[in-house]
Prior knowledge:
Elements: H1 2-25, H2 39-61, H3 73-87
Helix pairs in contact: 1-2, 1-3
Domain GST C-terminal: 1-98
Pfam families: GST_C
Protein name: GST C-terminal domain-containing protein
Amino acid sequence: MVINMMQKRAESMVLDAVASYFHHATDGLGPALETYQNVACGEKQGEKARQGFVYFNTVLANSAYVAGENFSVADITLYAGLVFAGFAKIAIPRSYHI
Length: 98
């Protein structure tokens, strides 16, 4: 139950937020594919992703893993979101535990 909940948080707070930021607030995949962009929405999603970083930084300050004592799909989802954030050029503070 905890793994599912934390996986959903990683997905909505980081991975999905970064994806929306990438597609709406950057050049994304180029004008041929990004035919509609809402920059204000994209910027808001970028802020949501940064808030997600803060949340997961707090979680990982006290635990090696996102959802308990073992590596799980929640960790994989957060990792995917963080890799995507790097690609989308959303800065993650070096002092963070994520």
